[in-house]
Amino acid sequence: MAHHASPHYAHRQNGEDGLKEAIGFSSEGMDEDLAFDGYRQLYAKGADVIRLDGPFCARVTGWRFRHMLLFDRHLSGMAHVREERVQADGFDHIVLHHALSGSVHRTDSDIR
I need a surface site. Which of 15, 39, 48, 79 has the fewest CB within 10 A? Predict the structure, then answer.
């Protein structure tokens, strides 16, 4: 049985806490190429996603608040490229990474 790679909306709410919606995506049990394509489509408006060496795996939960997007992401075998979009999308960006295992890699072009 094939799994559909598009994100599902897990929860919608307009509450006092400012939560507007939450989304989720998981590549678990999916063909890697199909899963990567679904993940890439999920982020298509905000980042280019490229494959890296090693197996692709993604589990994401995201929450949209009034003035903030927050993601809990468990990823491998991919990278986000946002160089031009950071200045063009109208968001102020603060990115924090907490690696529970493995490592996070950056290039010199990541620092401005």
Answer: 15
Identify the sign of the CA torsion 70, 38, 10, 103. negative
93 in a structural domain: yes
| 17 in any annotated domain | yes
pLDDT value, residue 112: 46
In the chain, the number of structural domains is 1
**% of the chain beyond a pLDDT of 90:** 30
User: Which residues, at least 6 apart from 65, have a Cβ–Cβ distance to it below 8 Å?
Assistant: 17, 18, 19, 20
Tell me whether residue 89 is in a domain: yes
Domain membership of residue 45 as a residue range = 8-102
Model pTM? 0.67
